[in-house]
Structures are given as C-alpha cells and as structure tokens.
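Protocol step 4 of 6: record predicted structures for both targets in the notebook before any analysis. Target 1:
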Amino acid sequence: MGLDRDDKDTRENLFGGTGAVQIWNCLPATPSAPFTAALWCELEPGGHVGRHRQTTYAEVVLCVSGEGRAIISEHTHPLVRGTLVHLPLGSNLSLHNDSDQTPLEYVIIKAAQ
C-alpha cells in the first residue's frame, strides 16, 4: 500500500503545540489486530506537538527523516533517521522539530495490548 500524498489530514497546533502536522493513514479502513493505527506524519520546521498522555494504546514512533526530540514522560530522546522510541500505555509524549528549515517525518504505530 503506497502513501497517497494528496490524501492527508492537516492539524494545526496539535495538543497545544505549534505549527502544522500533516498526517497520512497507512492502514486500510479496517486494520488487523493488534494494530489500530499506522500514521505517517510530517511536522513543519520549528513546530512541536504538545504534551499528551497515551491513554488508550501503546505506541512506537519511528523517525524517517529530519532532526528533533521526543520527550517521553521526563526523558528526552533525540530523533534522527532510524530512531525508534516506545511509548508505554500511560506515558506522556511531546515531539519537537529542532530544524527551522526541514520537516520532521515520523511514523506512529499504535497497538492494542
């Protein structure tokens, strides 16, 4: 299944952050258990996704390109191409694009426990 770059959802100031995040759904309309979502995301230069709690699904975030940070609960994890971070259920997450010129691209995969 290829990524249709025209079929995106753009969210502004997500979870109280700043800037735009473009989101593409990578799974079919009815995903297969245990996966509930696979989202390709592009956070604009200098933007950030505000702190929010993982209340329903555990997640992994895989950085595809760019440079940034994932703050999980109180721990900062640098994001560069190939970095994978795990977000246990109940943890808090914020994402930051540390570049003022390049988008931060990442994939979020959510799974039921």
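Target 2:
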Amino acid sequence: MKTRLIEHASRLLHALLRTRPAAPPVASASANVLVIKPASLGDVLMSTAFLAALRANLPQADVTVLVTTWAKAALAGNPHCDRLLDAGSVGFPGRYGLRAYRACVARVRQEEFTHCFVLDRSPLMAVLPRLAGIPWRAGLNSAGRGIALHVGVPCPDERHEAEIYLDVLRAAGFGVERPRLHYRLRAEDGAAVKRLLAERDVTPAFPLIALHPGGGTNPGQAHVGKRWPSGSFAALAARIARAHGARILLVGGADEASITGAVQSGAPAACVDLAGALSFGQLGALIQRCHLFIGNDSAPMHLAAAVGTPVVALFGPTPPERYGPYGVESAVVRFNSSKGDVTDEREVRAAAAAVARLLDASA
C-alpha cells in the first residue's frame, strides 16, 4: 500500500512540477552538469561506466557528482568527473530528514547547474534538481517516480543496473561504446599494499586470490542474507589451495574480522587475514594485483570489476542479472540463503569449478 501511494503521489507531482525543458547538453558547447548518484558504495561504482561515457560525449562539460559522504571513496580521483558535492547522508534511504534535504537543495541551487542526470530511483532525488532550478533533467523513472524529469528511463528488473544508468545517456541522444566500470588507483596505495604483502611474507606467485566473505552492510542497514556461509568460504579456500596451490588473501573491513577469522580457522595454511588493514583505495590496489577475486554481492566485488580483476561472485537473494560483475571476466554461483550458515557441498563444488575455469583462462 505504501509503495502504491508513493507511486501515485509521484505521478501527480510530476504533472504539477514539470516544466518546459531547456536545450539538452551537446558536445560542441560547455555545460555545468550535475550527476545525482548518492549511495551506496557498490551502486556508485556501477555508475562509473556512465561517467566515462558522459565524459566521452561531453568532453567540454564541467561534471559534478552529488554523492553521500559514505560513498565518496568510490569516486576518489575518478578522471571522468571534475568534483564531488558531498551530500552528507542525503540520498541514503532512512538516514536523512527534511532539514538536511532542504539544505542540500539550497547548496545545489547555488551551483547554477545547467543540466542534471539522476541515477537514483527515489522520488526525492528525482525532484531535487527541479527544486534547485536546474532547467534540463534526465534520469530514472522507476514506476512513475521520476518526478519532473524531462527524459525518464524505465528500470526493468532483468536489466543490469549499470546498463540502466547508461540507458539515461542513450535516451538523451548519446552513444555508448565499450562500457566498463572505472576506479583510479593511486601510486601511494599500490606502494602501501606492496609493503603490507612483504610484511606478511606474501609473494606474487600464481595464483594470488582475494576472498571477501563479508558484505551486505551499509550505514543503518544489514542484509546478512547476501553472505555465503563462512564455512562454505573456508571449504572453498581449502579446496582451491589444494587444487591450484593458491595463496588466499582474506579482505574486509574491521567490522568483518570475525567473518574472515572464521574462514581462516577453516583453512589456516592457505589464508592471510587482512581484514581491517586496508583503506578502500588500498583494497582496490590489492585486488588489482590478484589473479582472481571471490566474494559476495558487495562493493568489493564491484571494485574488483572496476580494476579489471576476474570475479567469482556468490549470489543469494539478490539478482545477478541486475547486480552482477560488469564488464569483466566473471562467473556467478547462486546459493540458497534460506539455509542460513549451513554449508552446501554442491555450492562449494560449483564455486570451485568456476574458480578453475577463470584461473585456466588467465594462466
């Protein structure tokens, strides 16, 4: 009922707030462009294919991205946007109020943007550029929630999220060629990772595998059903260590140390636990050095795709056709999240087979 009320109200507001569009952005002229993509880390990483295509089509434009403080790390140093506008918590569902939203609208209005792309399904994000006086607006129109957009794009469930974002560009009349995710690696992060691996006596022998058994958390949110059981990860780690002589680097935040610790206890000889030891940029540099990444549907999985490392992705309740690894060699293994922490040997065998296929392809 709540969803239907929101959709009905959005359609009414769209009719009341729509305006005559200004001229669309064109490659031959400069434009002051805002991209609204507030959260979360993984979703913001999936927007980097859009940002690259936007830059290719509008090389003279000044491009700003409105992003939450939490997700800014996904765009640190991104060459396809000129600056980031910190939205605080605005745009993170359930984490902001009217006062913060009004302040964000006022901040955006001050920038005098000429064009806006909204890569978010929230009606509050869709109407923000209208309230801020931006005269040309395009974006996602999920079930009629694209309030006051001049160009609205549907969001079919079976379409990949990165492709839906790119559809906004296509609907605006721009071409998209060879899209992929992007993450700018910094030399200092690579140097820090090199030192850390030397301290942990990790040599660059083949295969070096990053394994992330955590994920499913954002500020105020926890979707633990997205995690394959730690026992399954431990069984997989032990199996691929025996079969391939793999050295496995367990990665995750400090809050995931108990998960990586459980995996290491199940496969101690093969694993080096690095949970909490890396910044987001250092994690990207580490994954880029690896021959393979294994993990759940999470931001590190999308980071692996963004740095070009092949991915074995474990998917439970979320649809891989929508959130799977994008633009990189990959394999998806589905698991039954209703079993909780029970290890399913068939899932472990399927994951091991996927690892073998990708390692053989990169050998």
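Step 5 preliminary note on target 2. The CA atoms of residues 310 and 358 lie 7 Å apart. The two ends are 53 Å apart (CA to CA).
Proceed to step 6 after PI sign-off.
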